[in-house]
Amino acid sequence: MPLVINRDDLFRPGFLYRSGHVQTIVPTLYRKVSDPRYIRERIETRDGDFIDIDYASGSNSSAVILCHGLEGASDRAYMRGMARAFLDSSVDAYCFNFRSCSGELNRKARIYSAGGTDDLELVVEHVLAKKKYSRIFLAGFSLGGNLILKFLGERGEKAAGIISGAVAVSAAVDLKSTSLEIIKAKNFIYHKRFVKMLLKKYHEKVKVFPELHDIDLHSIRTMFDFDNNVAAPLLGFRDAFDYWEKSSSRQFLDEIRVPTLILSSMDDPILGPECYPFSEAEKSEFLFLETTEFGGHVGFLSSIGDRIYWHEKRTVKFITENCF
Predict the structure, then answer these.
(1) Range of the domain at 67
(2) What is the pLDDT of residues 212-245, one digit of tens each?
(3) Which terminal residue of the chain has fewer beta carbons within 10 Å of its beta carbon, N or C?
(4) CATH number of the domain residue 49 falls in
């Protein structure tokens, strides 16, 4: 059975949505998802900080942990949409808000990391302790997709005893490739938005942690500047390139031992060419790579008004067919 599949036959959006930028922008700006209603819980971390998770559950025997993208949160439409799709299929949904992404700054100077699998492990442990689930799944978007893939690859067989399956949507599996892609002129809108969001949050953090005043925030104009001057030193890396290299999941994909789908669009304006791990999927019996001609970055919109987006249907279908 081939593990690299083109899904153009299954996802053919309307003519107006056959653009990577349209697919990326329209759901971000115009999709509204009000349900499910979440319950919030706080997890205390080993370093004296906290992680907030938002969950929606019923009398279900399975659960999924959802991981958002850069500067995302549980209330983003793509997170709510995926949580709702799983709940409709009798799977409880737990949304992992990265540090400082739940609406409250975390207690430590540390920021969240694209490869911070130690925090994800705490969330997995919390969900396992909360209820005796027969199956736990992972699903992540963009940076969150990289995170769950790195988690599974790092832990190999150990993860297979805990996690039954996973899906990574528009996963940034090679952080250097993605970081160099997003600073291109074609991505000016996304790049400017992300830098603005990161700096806004970091300005708030500087007010609380005086030791961070040494960083000249006015000199940070690009994502590279932020990762090189803020993220890397705060997270213990030498520079941006060291951070990207050690935090990227692509190097760990060969060690994944649970059924895992990577679902990406070939017109994704943000993912770099190295974020499509064709060779790894061809060699692995656990890794499935499915690509579409259209879909943008965490888009997969067929038409305005869709309650459930195509990638949400495909994610739930993969889990139910391969992981139960």
Answers:
(1) 4-173+250-322
(2) 767 777 789 999 999 999 999 999 999 999 999 9
(3) N
(4) 3.40.50.1820
